[in-house]
Amino acid sequence: MATTPAMTLRAVLFQAFNRNSGILKHQLESARVLYVHQQSRSKGSTQYKFGRPWHVKKVNQSINDENLTTENEEFIKEVIHETYTQHPSPLREEPWQRGEYLKFTRRCGVIGIKLGLVPQWTKTGEKITTTLVQILDNHVIRYTPPEEAAKTAGWHPLWRKFGSVVVGALSSDPRQFKKSYNSLFAEAGVPPKQKLTRFLVTPNAAIQPGTPLTAMHFRVGDYVDVQAKTIDYGFQGVIKRWGMKGMPASHGVTKSHRKMGSSGGGREKAGIWKGKKMPGHMGDRNRITKGIRIWRINTKYNVLYLHGPSVPGSIHTYVRIYDTILPHKRPNPDDHPPMPTWFEEDSEGQCPEEQWDEELFAFTEPSVEYQ
Fold first, then answer.
1. pLDDT tens-digit series, residues 97-120
2. CA 8 vs CA 18, 70, 343: distances in Å
């Protein structure tokens, strides 16, 4: 029996998908997003001596979808759905045994997107500025125990007691990446992610690959550390970069109003010392803000309300959030966050959509009561 042109096209598309995208294990899901922004990399600076410190995704640029019809596009989606559902997910097996939270336990973190600033008010009328961070489609991709993590490249001897957990955020179409990148997610059984990061965890906080991470990973009132890349301002002078005063505005000053002034000393201290504050590249560096309090949690959209405007980075920047390392703000072992993360069976009944701190005023409550 001769094959029709339509059947031949379907076979060609099926082979092209398997060759370019690889075999994954789970159905492609699109998360409910308040605002999606694909962050573009800056032109870069000279501060990184040995190259960029992140793993660049291998984008598949050989695919041309301009000539695909609507029927062909629907067929490719069916192939993706069938490919993901052919293999079982690791979560269908028996879950890993939960560890006990101890004094020096270090849990996994999450990846969020900075949305902006929103004011909140306490019950006493004090105004508080909060930063909104949304946790979008986070899954555990891989867990490496300490004995195996010590053999990996770039591992520090001080990390010998910790394992590593790779977390991915924002599922995407596997046709956008090459097979080598898609194969990284085969163990977890999830679609390829746009953002990957690694967290150091203790063995009692290991998480099974494929486990979803939500805003319920934290509690209202907990303190977290936030890491992100600061805003890139490019090359700036000493007044904007370091806040120097500059030269006088008049009285004989000519074309030196925004200069730094004298830069070198005399005699034995002559010359420029290492670390001298001078003009140069400003921003575009990873910075950590420690000890930020969580005032409010929205479980419907997975949004965290963090204290203050001190979260580094611009709006729509990827943010790493994890338990704080400050000793006086870490949780007590008797009253600890969910271990190793929050699961649906941990909550009794339906989880509330909004969770407020005890000191924070909830807008659903009346502001004035008459007796």
1. 888 889 889 999 999 999 999 999
2. 16, 17, 46
Q: Cα torsion for 278, 310, 195, 343, to the nearest 10°? A: 150
The SS3 call for residue 228 is strand
Phi then psi for residue 304, to 5 deg, are: -105, 135
Residues 6+ apart with CB under 8 A from 7: none
Position 137, amino acid: D
**Burial of 179 from C-beta contacts in 10 A (0-12 / 13-18 / 19+):** middle
Token pair in block for residue 282: 């400003």
C-beta separation of 141 from 184 below 8 A: yes
Produce one character per residue of 37-66: b if its CB has 16 or more CB atoms within 10 Å, e if not: eeeeeeeeeeeeeeeeeeeebeebeeeeee
User: Is the CB of residue 24 less than 8 Å from the CB of residue 185?
Assistant: yes
pLDDT tens-digit profile of 113-162?
999 999 999 998 899 999 999 999 899 999 999 998 888 877 888 888 89
